Structure formats: C-alpha cells, structure tokens
Amino acid sequence: MMSTHFKTLSKMISSLVVIASLLLFIHFDRAAAAAASPLLEVDDRAVVSEADLIYLSPASDPLEGQPIGNGHMGRLVCKRRA
Of all helices (H) and strands (E), which one includes residue 75? Predict the structure, then answer.
C-alpha cells in the first residue's frame, strides 16, 4: 500500500515539475520577445522634441502669456513691463 501512494505522489511531483518548467519557459520567452521587439523601442528624445514650443520673444501683453499648470492650478508666464 505504501508503494502505491509513493508512486502516485512521485507522478504528481513529476507533473508539477514539468508544468512549472513550462510556465517558466513561457514567461522568460515572452520577456525576451518583448525586449527584442522593435515596437517597444522608442526614442524618447525624438518624441518629446516634437512637442517643444520655441518662442523667439516673450509675450508683450500679459494676456498673451504662456499658460502653465496642472489643470487645477496655474499661471500665465509673460514679460514684465519695465
């Protein structure tokens, strides 16, 4: 009777080891594929530089200032009158 339980337990452990190995292989295979994928290669400087705003001179009128803020609090940045 002891040998039957031992064989069953041994088969279960073997099955679990095989399943765990397959899961690890799938996980690392997906991670390697994601790292090698050209879709995930982004040139951050190029993307950010497309949104750069270049001003040649400061705003002369306070109402022409550049609004800055986070949507809840903000200011208009403009040139001070001398």
Answer: strand 74-77
What is the residue extent of each domain of the chain? 2-77
Q: In three state form, how does the secondary structure of 2-45 look?
A: HHHHHHHHHHHHHHHHHHHHHHHHHHHHHHHHHHHCHHHCCCHH
For residue 68, what is the enclosing H or E element? strand 66-69
Report the alpha-carbon distance of residue 3 to residue 9 in Å, rounded.
10
Residue at token pair 């997906």: 30
pLDDT digits (tens, 9 = 90+) for 8-54: 878 888 888 888 887 777 777 666 666 666 666 777 788 777 777 77
**pTM as predicted:** 0.35
- Please report which helix (H) or strand (E) contains residue 47, including its range: helix 44-49
